[in-house]
Amino acid sequence: MGRNLEATIETFPIAGTFTISRGSKTEAEVIVCTITDGAHSGCGECVPYKRYGESLEGVLADIQAIARKIEDGLSREDLQRAMKPGAARNAVDCALWDLEAKRSGLSVSESIGVTGARPLATAFTLSLGEPETMAAEAAKNAHRPLLKVKLGTDNDEARLRAIRHAAPNAKLIVDANEGWTEENLAHHMAVAAELGVSLIEQPLPANRDEALAGIARPVSICADESVHATKDLAALRDRYDAVNIKLDKTGGLTEALAMKAEAKRLRFQIMVGCMVGSSLAMAPAVLLAHDADYVDLDGPLLLARDRMPALRYEGSLVYPPEAALWG
Question: Is-contact 123 146, C-beta < 8 A?
Fold first, then answer.
């Protein structure tokens, strides 16, 4: 039976404004890939990311360019060679996983050996803002076990101190989004250590992170923009303690599973993260994250509305996806 591929752009409003060191946005623009075989349909969602040279139009074109091969029966394994890592391959790969589950009756969770899937505690992200604004948001969310703090400016000490005062018991992750410099790195790391920060994500630009190999790291450092796929890992072992695995970087669950296994072999800590997208984008990542050191899958919590059916969130707990959503 033949297959058909369709890809569409969808938009979800963000609750307020989401700001990082590179800019702000008020909506999440995603692409949904749907592959049908006449009896069953599989879906995958991706979030094109400008930082990686992606655009909605370009990613949509990349998905449409592979449509004929998918319709002719291209496998997930062959897809890894036919498309480069990135958002486009993620949407197609996850749609194929979903289609396989629907056709076989075997869930993705079972296929990848995640038995007894359970709810996970996810980080909740505080958008970059003035210290008093971020402190107010931290106070509102101080009951959450893990807060991820968007930083990346010259004045991050004030922000960090205000946030820690407002949420004294929360575990903190700092995400500088490449916004720190070699000149202020040691100072910011010392402040983070003093305040009990658990992890610092991507403090320096991806192409200028060599300095991390030559300094003491009082707080564990996690690679995000510096790492995309399995092939990147070995070269980063001297400068990072953890890696952030995102499906939109790896190009789908297939590569993400391989990358996770190799990262564990190299003794990296594992974070499973996300772009700001809907529950459909988070669903496969929830399964990937079942034994991760850090889970950062709060994308739908940042939206004014999610798609239906949606993932189940209770506070900071995210539950495994139901079959009606994905997998």
Answer: yes
The pair of three-digit structure tokens given for residue 169, joined into one six-digit string? 């018991």
Distance CA 11, CA 277 (A): 9
pLDDT digits (tens, 9 = 90+) for 246-286: 999 999 999 999 999 999 999 999 999 999 999 999 999 99
pLDDT score of 1 more than 90: no
Q: Classify 157 as helix, strand or coil.
A: helix
Q: Which stretches of the chain are DSSP H helices?
A: 56-71, 76-82, 87-104, 108-111, 131-140, 156-166, 182-194, 247-250, 253-265, 279-288
Which is catalytic among the residues 102, 148, 150, 249?
150
Q: What angle, rounded to 10 degrees, do the helices at 156-166 and 131-140 form?
A: 30
Q: Which of 291, 226, 280, 225 is nearest to 257 (CA)?
A: 291
Is residue 246 flagged as an active site residue? yes
| CB neighbours of residue 77 within 10 Å | 9
Percent of the chain whose predicted confidence (pLDDT) is above 70: 100
Structure tokens at 166: 């407002």
Active-site residue flag, 150? yes
Q: Which of 25, 50, 171, 246 is catalytic?
A: 246
Residue-wise pLDDT tens digits, 65-93: 999 999 999 999 999 999 999 999 999 99
- Single pTM value for the model: 0.97
Domain annotation for the chain: domains and CATH numbers:
4-109 (3.30.390.10), 120-318 (3.20.20.120)
